[in-house]
Write a structure and sequence with these properties.
It is a multi-pass membrane protein. This is DoxX family protein. Its main location: membrane. The structure is a single chain. This protein has one domain. It has eight helices and no strands.
Length: 149
């Protein structure tokens, strides 16, 4: 593969690291006080209850709504873990797959909010490309210890 300046594997590593920075920013910009006291999950509950797909409403009501505080921590710290894992290249294929799933969940939940869809679609696409390109081959903990090669 011919590229300018860096190798193909290095460009894919940059894509992976950029996605990690995006996840880190998703975590950083949350108002933690509001988020952890129910603000984030309450906001999502309002969206889920009006969702056009009954399966989304039922899934949210079954999994998330009964545990708002736990789910707030799961979402926030999943974003933090994804960001740090992708930047460092630690357990990268797992982080990319989990990030792809999380973006698809966000995409399905926010199907009515077109402002959010661009971000979730782009992050899902980057996750898929970085996963299929094995973006952990350079500049990663995985590469340094010989995992997933």
């Amino acid at each position: 593969m011919q590229t300018i300046w860096l190798s193909g594997a290095e460009w894919f590593a940059i894509l992976r690291i950029g996605l990690g920075l995006w996840w880190l920013e998703s975590w950083r910009h949350k108002d933690k006080k509001t988020w952890f006291t129910g603000g984030g999950i309450g906001w999502a509950a309002g969206i889920a209850e009006k969702h056009r797909w009954p399966v989304v409403r039922r899934g949210f009501d079954t999994v998330v709504k009964p545990r708002p505080r736990l789910m707030a921590y799961v979402v926030a710290y999943a974003e933090l873990a994804l960001g740090l894992g992708l930047i460092a290249g630690f357990l990268t294929p797992i982080a990319l797959a989990c990030g792809l799933v999380l973006n698809l969940i966000y995409l399905v939940l926010m199907i009515h909010d077109w402002a959010e869809q661009g971000q979730n679609l782009m992050m899902a696409l980057i996750s898929a490309v970085a996963l299929l390109a094995m973006s952990w081959q350079v500049w990663s903990v995985d590469e340094a210890v010989g995992w997933f090669l």
